[in-house]
Amino acid sequence: xxxxxxxxxxxxxxxxxxxxxxxxxxxxxxxxxxxxxxxxxxxxxxxxxxxxxxxxxxxxxxxxxxxxxxxxxxxxxxxxxxxxxxx
Amino acid sequence: xxxxxxxxxxxxxxxxxxxxxxxxxxxxxxxxxxxxxxxxxxxxxxxxxxxxxxxxxxxxxxxxxxxxxxxxxxxxxxxxxxxxxxxxxxxxxxxxxxxxxxxxxxxxxxxxxxxxxxxxxxxxxxxxxxxxxxxxxxxxxxxxxxxxxxxxxxxxxxxxxxxxxxxxxxxxxxxxxxxxxxxxxxxxxxxxxxxxxxxxxxxxxxxxxxxxxxxxxxxxxxxxxxxxxxxxxxxxxxxxxxxxxxxxxxxxxxxxxxxxxxxxxxxxxxxxxxxxxxxxxxxxxxxxxxxxxxxxxxxxxxxxxxxxxxxxxxxxxxxxxxxxxxxxxxxxxxxxxxxxxxxxxxxxxxxxxxxxxxxxxxxxxxxxxxxxxxxxxxxxxxxxxxxxxxxxxxxxxxxxxxxxxxxxxxxxxxxxxxxxxxxxxxxxxxxxxxxxxxxxxxxxxxxxxxxxxxxxxxxxxxxxxxxxxxxxxxxxxxxxxxxxxxxxxxxxxxxxxxxxxxxxxxxxxxxxxxxxxxxxxxxxxxxxxxxxxxxxxxxxxxxxxxxxxxxxxxxxxxxxxxxxxxxxxxxxxxxxxxxxxxxxxxxxxxxxxxxxxxxxxxxxxxxxxxxxxxxxxxxxxxxxxxxxxxxxxxxxxxxxxxxxxxxxxxxxxxxxxxxxxxxxxxxxxxxxxxxxxxxxxxxxxxxxxxxxxxxxxxxxxxxxxxxxxxxxxxxxxxxxxxxxxxxxxxxxxxxxxxxxxxxxxxxxxxxxxxxxxxxxxxxxxxxxxxxxxxxxxxxxxxxxxxxxxxxxxxxxxxxxxxxxxxxxxxxxxxxxxxxxxxxxxxxxxxxxxxxxxxxxxxxxxxxxxxxxxxxxxxxxxxxxxxxxxxxxxxxxxxxxxxxxx
Lengths: 87, 885
Fold this sequence. Notes:
A: 1 helix; globular; B: alpha+beta; 6% strand; disordered N terminus; disordered C terminus
C-alpha cells in the first residue's frame, strides 16, 4: 500500500509542471520565437523536436510564420510548419 | 517666518509626509491622511477583520479579480456586439485598456509621494496587464480558424499555372487581411502589456525610493530649527484649541445625542466581548488568587489571553466608535484624523501595557512568566509603559500636525524630542536590577542585568539619541516605534504559539473549564475532547500567524494592498521554478473529491438497500455490484478532484506510461492482486459468508476487497488472503451454490457385534435426528476391517453444512447411548482406547469427502481415519470418544 501511495504521489508531482506554457517544435528545423514577457523582448530558439517551457505568467510570442499570439501561461503549444498550434 | 510656512499648506503636507516617517499605528493600518478621510473607516474595518480573523482571506482573494471585471464589461458595451466585428471589439477593448493605463500612469505621477495610493495603483496596473493578455488570448480562435482555412485554400498558383477561381483569390485576400489585422492588434496588445509592466516596475521603484528617502532623510538640527518649531508650535496650539473647542461646541449643541449614542453603542460592543469571554474562558484568562504557584502552561495561556482579550475589546471599541461617529456625522474632516489617531494610540497603549503586565505581573509574582524581582518587574513595566506613551504621543502629535497643516519642522522637532526621551528611557532601563539568582525569592533587591543586555540597552538608547540629534529623525523614530510595537507583537506571538502548543497537548483541554463545559453540555468523550484540544491548538496557531504577521508587516511600512496581493498570490499561485501551485485549486480539488466520495457511498447504500435488496438479487452479485460501484465512484471522484486541482490529466497518461515499467517490477504483486480482485468481483467464485478452503486457510469469507479477501477462521482469527491466491490456486467452497453437504461419522466396534444390526441401528439414529435430510438419505457403510475392530461409517446429508459440528456431536451421543442400551458392543475399540489415549480431538465442523473408491475399499481403521478427507487432516476420530468411557 505504501508503494502504491508513493506511486500516486509521484504521479501527481509529475503532473504538476503542466502549468507553464510548453512549446514543442515539431518541424525539421530550429524555430526562433520572439517572446515578450514582462518588460523584456527576447528570442527563444527551439531546436527541431525540442521542447521549452516559457512564460508561466502570461506573455506574447511571435512565431516564425509572423503570427503573434497571446498566452495565458498554461497552454501547450506546438510549432507546426512555422506556425503555432495551441492545444 | 511662520507665515511663509503656512502659505503653501499642500506642498508642506507632502514634504511633511516625506519627513516624518508616517508612524504606523498598531492594530490597524491607520495612517492618517487628511485627504483620505473616507478610506480611514475602511482601513479600520480591515484591521478589525484582521483582528477577528474574519474572512480576510476570501476578501483578499477576490480583490484583483473583481477589479479586472468591470473593465471587460464596459468595453463590451462600447459597441453593440452584433454589429461590430470581433476585431473591432478587440480594438475597442485595447483602446479602453490603453486609456485606463494612461489614467493609472497619471495617477502614479500625482501620487508620487503617497505610498498607500501607489500600492493600490500597482494592484490595478497588474490587473490591467492580465486583462490585456486576456484580450489578446480571445483573438486566438479566430486566428486559428483563418490559418486553417488558408491551409485549405492552399498557396496561390504560380504565374505560369492556370489561374484559380476568382472566389478563392478573393477569400484568400480577405483572410490574409484579417490575419494581418489580428496580428497588428496583438502587436498593440504586446506594446500595451510592456507598458503596463514598465509602469508596475516604476511604481515598485518609486515606492522603494520613497521608503529609503523617508527613512534616511536628513534634517539639519540647530537653533534656527528649534526657533522655527517653537513659533510653529504656538500657531498649531492656537489652531488646535480653536478647532477642538469649536467642534466640541458644535457637537454638544447639535449632535449631543449622536455622540453619546455612538459612544454607548461601542461601549456595549466592547462590554459584550469582555463579559462574554470572561464567562466562557475565565480560568484561562483571569488570574485567580491561588495559594500555590500555577503551572507554567496556565501562566502562559493566562498571559496570552489576558493580553488578547482586553486588546480585542479595545480595538472593537475603537473601530465601532469611529464607525458610529463617522456614520452619525459627528466628525468633521479636520477632527476625524485626530480622533482616529487617539483611538489607535489608546489601542496600542492598552496592548503594550496589558502585555507588559501579563508577562511581568508586577503585583503577583507567582504569575510572572520571566524570573525577575518584584521591584525589577514594577520598574520594567513602568518603563515599557512610558516608552509606549511617548511613542503614542509622538504619533498623535504627528497626526495633529498633519491635520492642522503645521510645518514639517514642527513634526521633526516633536519626533526628535520623542526619540531622545525613548533613548533615555532605554538607557535608564539598563540601570534596573531585575535579575533574581537561583534560590532567592523575588522580594529581594535583585542583581543588575547581565553585561551584554545592559550594553545592548545603553547602545540602543545612545544610538537613538545620536541618530535623532544628527538629523536622522525619521530613522530614530522608526527604530523607536519598532522597539516598542514590533517587540510587543513578537512577544505576544511567541506567547501565543506557546499557548497553542500547550492547549494542543494531550488532555490539556479536558482540564480547563471549556473542556468541562463541553463535556457536560455535549457529552464529549475523553478522545473527542482531546481532538478538540488539538483543533483548538491549531486554531490558535492560525490566529497568531494570520493576525500578527500582517501587523508586523504593517509596522514595517508595507501597505494593506501589498499584503492583500501577497495573500492572493500565496493562495492562488505559488511558483516553484516553472511550476505554479494553487492552494485554492488543491483545496477545491480535495473538497470535490470528498463530496464525490460521500455521494458514491450514499449511492452505494441506496442501490444496495433499496434497489438490489428488493429485486432479490443474489448476495454475491449485490456485493460485487456494490464494491464495483464503490471503486468506480472513488475513481471518478479522484479524477474530478485532480482536474479541479489543476493537474493535467494528459500528462498523467505520460506518467502512467513511465510507471508501467515500475509496475512490471516493483508493483507486480499489488497489480496482480488488484486484477485478481476485479476478476473475483466479476466471476464470484465465492461470496461474503461462504465457507472456503484455500491452501492451509479455511474459514468464512468476511469481506472481499480489491487487493485482499478477509477470511475468518473457526478460531475467529482473521486472515487476509491476497486475491491472487484465489485466482492462481484451487479454492474449495463448501457453500458455493447451496449449503447442502455430507457429514461422516466413523464408528468402530469389536468383532462381537453383528454388522447388519450395527448398520440398521446407525441408520435409525440418523433418521431420528431432525436436521438430517431424508433425501439424499443417510447411508451406513461398513468401511474397514481392523485388527480387532470393524469400522463403520454413518454418512448423513445436511441442508446446511455449517451445522455439521452440532449434528455430529448429537449423533455421536445418540450412537453411544443406543449401543450401550442394546449391548451392541462399545462403538469404539477398547484396547485401542487404552493404547492411544492421546488421539487428538478437535471437535470442529468437518465435512469429510470420501471418494467412491475409498468407500468401496476395505481399509484398516487407521487409514480410513486419514482418508476421511483428503483435502485436509481429519479431525474427528473414534479414538476421541474413547476418552469419555
